[in-house]
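Issue 218. Parser rejects a valid record. Input:
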Amino acid sequence: MDISSLPTASPTLGASRQRARGEVRAHFARAGARTEAARAYETGGLRLRFPRARAECEAVIVNTGGGMAGGDLAKIELTLAPEARVAATTQSAEKIYRCDEEPVRVATRLAVEAGGALAWTPQETLLFDKAWLERSLEADVAPDASLLLMEAVIFGRLAHGETQISARLRDRWRVRRAGRLVFADETRLDNAGAALDRPAVGGGARAIALILCVAPNVEAQLPNLRAALDAVTGAEGERLEAGASAFDGLLVARIASPSPSRLRAALIGAMVALRGVAAPRVWS
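Output the parser choked on:
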């Protein structure tokens, strides 16, 4: 395995303000009965760690900066060779701080070749008051491969009283199967706290998530997912709103809750239901 680590190239904006640029790239391949990182590259504040390299390789992305501020950029690229199996996540929730001039930008690219299986399940993204995040995800999956995508966003540090925040979110997903676009999604929220309070948008939610599973015959997993989501109940004020549907090798679920902990429990249950194994250890 070849791992390179280079200094961060942080261009100066204005007189003296430096911005962080981080990137990780990894290509995974079968090595006998195991899946290993055949090539890996990391630069800036992003690091890759591999706590497990068994039949399924566990990959954990670490942001050594502890959070991201306006103008910061993160790029993530994961590719799987035929029959490779990878569960990729992040070490902890990603914090997006107040952004005065520029957004935080996060770009993720994923590719899964024939017979491969990738679960991309990063932990939650936490938007502080006046945060501004522009995020994109592009994926291409072979017809007989499987891809599980899961992204969650928490709006405000609720324990600190940030219940009405003016954060901005732009989230763009494009997923292709054998090069053909099969899923496209755009989320745009301005003044997020007020927007999520509207009944037709979030109904008071402060935590939202999108789950997408692309796999042959994934429709058969829909009852398992719905049962897992139905099992997550909470006290008044911690309700969970969720909906899931499946068609033509795609399974999609959206979840919203006023309670980040309730949403997290739902995500862990969804991972177990869809993958048949425990969630990555860093989720514990």
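Fixed in the parser; the record now loads. Residues 23-276 form one domain.
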